[in-house]
């Protein structure tokens, strides 16, 4: 049986909140992993789980991941996350509103130690309801004084990460004539393609959605069938669609020197970082590279200014350089180096300096 307290102790979580609300049927779990750097921030996921323990493990893992992401984005934030367990009844708009109102009350009861936002299964409209019950919510629409779509900021962070990677791996200071393949020509993928084509790179992309493909074509992206993206010969492969795309099946097919993209949780398992390394493929660690989204919502909290958010995302370049340098020096993977740097940054002593 899953030993919750043992997990909390081992992974150093600070707080776990379960709520089973009688009136609305809201079942939510909020996990606060680390608030050494500042209040914990992480989205609210609405998802159907086969077992409550699956929801618990999901929120515990995701909240820890948010601590690392915030630390590596150099933000005064900690890691937290919440899940709302879907039961189908939330399809009723009235009940959905009531549940998000109740969820807002739970967030409010945590006194700002946890800040919530939209995530898989939730929408900005849900967050507007939450906002009526707590001010500890971010990522609101622009017409509500929020920061709106974070994708341009995320895309800039990915582009800057690629600049760091081509310098360190290819010894290049420009994209002229380089080939980049992108899986997922959605909001981030297309904005990234624009940066790359403007910088002189050739972009090969794929998507499962016709509208995304059409938008990519307009940007001059060469489209390949979905399954072929892993076989494209390119300097960089950028996963910008789904998680777990770096796995036993895909890694042996990759014909690139660098993998750097926006998607969350790209490695199917941590050992796939070693697998890339053994094949001489340099990996730009996902939670570092895609930190622009978090940087954007942080800037909403302090008073939104897009230029300031873009400038902070641009600095991801320096973090990627630091990671590459450490990996090189210590003969470890970039994944291990990022993990080590993040853990250091989460210690109370790190904040004293
Ligand atoms: P999006 O939904 O706008 O784009 C994703 C695109 O991937 C869509 O066009 C979709 O059709 C396509 N896609 C889905 N399955 C595919 C497949 N099998 N092969 C090819 N394409 C496929 O999402 P987005 O905002 O651009 O985010 C992209 C990724 O980056 C996601 O994994 C997201 O979690 C992550 N991310 C996004 C942000 C952000 O600011 N938007 C921040 C951090 C991380």
Give the integer mean of the pLDDT values. Answer: 96
Element order, helices and strands? Answer: HEEEEHEHEHHEHEHEEEHEHHHHHH
Query: What is the architecture of the largest domain at the second tier of CATH?
Result: 3-Layer(aba) Sandwich
Indicate how many domains the architecture comprises: 2
Helix and strand composition category: alpha/beta
CATH hierarchy class name of the largest domain: Alpha Beta
The CATH topology label of the largest domain is: Rossmann fold
CATH superfamily of the largest domain: NAD(P)-binding Rossmann-like Domain
Radius of gyration computed on alpha carbons: 20 Å
End-to-end gap: 41 Å
Apparent shape = globular
Secondary structure tally, helices: 14
Q: The biggest beta sheet, please?
A: 6 strands, mixed
Quaternary state of the chains: single chain
Strand content: 5-15%
How many beta-strand segments?
12
What level of helicity do the residues show? 40-55%
Which spans have pLDDT < 50 for at least 5 consecutive residues?
A: none
Q: What bound compounds does this protein have?
A: nicotinamide-adenine-dinucleotide
Characterise the protein shown here:
With 353 residues, the protein is α/β, with parallel strands linked by helices. It folds into two domains: 4-66 and 77-144, 3-Layer(aba) Sandwich (Rossmann fold), CATH 3.40.50; 151-291 and 317-344, Rossmann fold, CATH 3.40.50.720. Helix content is 45%, strand content 14%. It has 14 helices and twelve strands. The protein has helices at residues 4-11, 52-72, 93-109, 124-131, 151-170, 187-198, 210-218, 271-278, 286-289, 292-302, 306-314, 316-330, 334-345, 348-352; strands at 15-20, 27-34, 40-41, 44-47, 78-85, 114-115, 179-183, 202-206, 222-223, 236-239, 258-259, 282-283. The strands form two sheets. Strands 1, 2, 3, 4, 5 and 6 form a six-stranded mixed β-sheet that branches. It has a six-stranded parallel β-sheet with strand order 9-8-7-10-11-12, with helices on both faces. A hairpin with a 6-residue loop joins strand 1 (15-20) and strand 2. The protein is globular. The protein binds nicotinamide-adenine-dinucleotide. Nicotinamide-adenine-dinucleotide binds next to helix 5 and helix 6.
